[in-house]
Amino acid sequence: MNPDIVKERQNATFNVEKLTNILDGSPEKTRRRREIESMVLNDPDFQEQDPNFLSRSERYDQAVRKSAQMILKLREFGISDPDEIYYYKNCVHPDRPEPLDLHLGMFLPTLLNQATPEQMDRFFTPAWNLQIIGTYAQTEMGHGWWRCSQRASCSATTPTVLPALTSEDWRPQATFDPATQEFVLNSPTISSIKWWPGGLGKTSNHAIVLAQLHTQGNCHGLHAFIVPIRDMDTHVPLPGIVVGDIGPKFGFSEVDNGFLKLENVRIPLDNMLMKYAKVEPDGTYVKPPSAKLTYGTMVFIRSMIVGQSALALAKSCTIAIRYSAVRHQSELKPGEPEPQILNFQTQQHKLFPVLATAYAFTFVGQYMKQTYNRISGDIHEGDYSGLPELHALSAGLKAFTTWAANGAIEVCRMSCGGHGYSRSSALPDIYVEFTPTCTYEGENTVMMLQTARYLLKSYSQARGGQQLQGSVSYLSRLQPQPVSAGVPPLNIQDLASLVQVYQLRAANLVELAATSIQQELQLRHSQEDAWNSSAIDLVRASDAGLLSVPQALQVSAHIKELLIQLRPNAVALVDAFDLNDKKLNSVLGRYDGNVYEHLFEWARHSPLNASEVPPALTIIVIIKHNQLIGSFFPRSTSLSTST
Ligand SMILES: CCCCC/C=C\C/C=C\C/C=C\C/C=C\C/C=C\CCC(=O)SCCNC(=O)CCNC(=O)[C@H](O)C(C)(C)COP(=O)(O)OP(=O)(O)OC[C@H]1O[C@@H](n2cnc3c(N)ncnc32)[C@H](O)[C@@H]1OP(=O)(O)O
Ligand SMILES: Cc1cc2nc3c(=O)[nH]c(=O)nc-3n(C[C@H](O)[C@H](O)[C@H](O)COP(=O)(O)OP(=O)(O)OC[C@H]3O[C@@H](n4cnc5c(N)ncnc54)[C@H](O)[C@@H]3O)c2cc1C
């Protein structure tokens, strides 16, 4: 054990195990989490080659092998609780998305939320047993977003063939054929090819495809269909299915994100997910109680991503803070030993806010999950009243937490200097695997605008005298203040006072956005144009701080004081996240702090070190010996060599 890190732990002023229990929810939950962890980390079937030294195809193959083992073991150990499955999976594939993510994270949950009992028997049971492997195909090459409700040019009363349809409307179509009781699916244009779905490229044999429903000559907007894409025995693509991998990406190397072109693919009537919307055998369309229910799975994953932001931050600051405790640089005073870099105020100022955010997001993630479970329970009982708030909260928190975490991971990487740039630190991988959360499940700006839409509606209800409940109740309680009213009193030591200032700022920003829309409406006369011209204010309204210059200076001084208070407990606070070394997979973030010897050891495994003279270098050796000069270079080229 590195002596610096030992001293850090000796200086801590609280019981780390108790804090771990609080983070987990209870001592029993900590025990069970560790039990699952050791099932995976001590299982030889999950041993792997360091992916850093593998090609993409090798990484995919290794991940598929581990995922298959994972399913067998989940069955063997009878693990069926979604939280436990999720935890087990995260130990099997630490930090890395894998080919079955979409199957587990979106295919199964979409069936649970939108399938009829008959469809549950036909699809969910075999999918649970991994006979059916599914993905969720919404995004297309030309479009990442869809309307929940029908477009003006795609409504129940608009015949499909009207020339009013624009090129934008040429999205994948599912047209009902009553003669055969089938839907015929087509991707009419290049831009309507499904693009991005995880596990689609090679792994899945089924996809939930979102397509425009056409029946009795009318278009009814976006609906979900279960489409078999590969033969269940041979895994070969079925007729009419053009499918494959979209190629290498920034990260996600283990995942076969794919493309899917549908060419007159026929599926039975009862392959449309019909828990809510229905098509009768004669083609009659039965509306769902809410068109927004089609988007339920995204609300689930967005809620889950809030917790993933916390985990990415916990990992990043564990690595950076432990490393900063054992790294020494630059004499502070001449002749004295070099200090731990964690003693530099600037280093603390980089890392301690990340640490605080990791804690805050952990609790926000738990709150989001409880809210999701509560409101989705109501929805299952037929009460849809909480859906708008759930959508606004999950969309806004997904965007806010992923943006914040995305920036903070990079702060952690840079705070580790050069070694942070090495893949041995794990920080580059954490970044590339985390950053697409800002884009997928709804691009963040678009999500912020969804939250703003809800805030503005709530604002106008509050101004109309309604007493609002839940997360927007502050809009009823607080009267937005004009700038001339000055800044509110603030006690920076008092949490309640800080929350009140945040709420006031939020209310002011919502009012600013509403005023902007009103002004733009007078200028532009169209609600849509006024909305777009106020979009910057709207995004700010969803991301609410209202301080005077002296108050800001007071905050700044208080932060310096807090850095000093936090310093003795920094290592213990990251230890409390209880991230096992094998899960963290970082040379810099090792629990024992023995960084340098393991860094050297890790580098020696680089494939470039497999031979002292890599084969490609023989050409240089030959050139050095002047044997090829005549054939490689024209006679006029003078090459001076010493040999
Ligand atoms: C069962 C066992 C489970 C075990 C689980 C265990 C382990 C899990 C394992 C793994 C998980 C790991 C990883 C996670 C897996 C996957 C993640 C990886 C990849 C990502 C996959 C994807 O990206 S899928 C594609 C996602 N795509 C999007 O998110 C597109 C975003 N677009 C939209 O949401 C919409 O197009 C829109 C909202 C931007 C615009 O829609 P539009 O209709 O035009 O909107 P408006 O006119 O503004 O609003 C209309 C109306 O609807 C309301 N609304 C909108 N969305 C929703 C919603 N989702 N819910 C409720 N309500 C909604 C909106 O507020 C408006 O309401 P009002 O009219 O009342 O104002
Ligand atoms: C790693 C990864 C995995 C994915 N997995 C899946 C999957 O499994 N299944 C699936 O269906 N999809 C998947 N996706 C696709 C993903 O859901 C989309 O990329 C995402 O929804 C964003 O859509 P887009 O790419 O069309 O971005 P665009 O909407 O084209 O965004 C581009 C820019 O335009 C801006 N913009 C767009 N609309 C508006 C607006 N209304 N107002 C203001 N600004 C706007 C955005 O803010 C952004 O700056 C995945 C993507 C990635 C990167």
UniProtKB/TrEMBL annotation:
GO terms for cellular component: peroxisome. It catalyses: octanoyl-CoA + O2 = (2E)-octenoyl-CoA + H2O2; (5Z,8Z,11Z,14Z,17Z)-eicosapentaenoyl-CoA + O2 = (2E,5Z,8Z,11Z,14Z,17Z)-eicosahexaenoyl-CoA + H2O2; decanoyl-CoA + O2 = (2E)-decenoyl-CoA + H2O2; dodecanoyl-CoA + O2 = (2E)-dodecenoyl-CoA + H2O2. Residues 494-544, 545-617 form the Acyl-CoA oxidase C-terminal domain. InterPro entries: ACOX_C_alpha1 (IPR055060), Acyl-CoA_ox_N (IPR029320), Acyl-CoA_Oxase/DH_mid-dom_sf (IPR046373), Acyl-CoA_oxidase (IPR012258), Acyl-CoA_oxidase_C (IPR002655), AcylCo_DH-like_C (IPR036250), AcylCoA_DH/ox_N_sf (IPR037069), AcylCoA_DH/oxidase_NM_dom_sf (IPR009100). It is found in: Peroxisome. Residues 15-133 form the Acyl-coenzyme A oxidase N-terminal domain. GO terms for molecular function: acyl-CoA oxidase activity; FAD binding; fatty acid binding. Its main location: other. It holds the Pfam family ACOX_C_alpha1. FAD binds at residues 139, 198. Pathway: Lipid metabolism; peroxisomal fatty acid beta-oxidation. This is Acyl-coenzyme A oxidase. Residues 295-456 form the Acyl-CoA oxidase C-alpha1 domain. Belongs to the acyl-CoA oxidase family. Its cofactor is FAD. The active site is at 441 (proton acceptor). GO terms for biological process: fatty acid beta-oxidation using acyl-CoA oxidase; lipid homeostasis; very long-chain fatty acid metabolic process. Keywords: FAD, Fatty acid metabolism, Flavoprotein, Lipid metabolism, Oxidoreductase, Peroxisome.
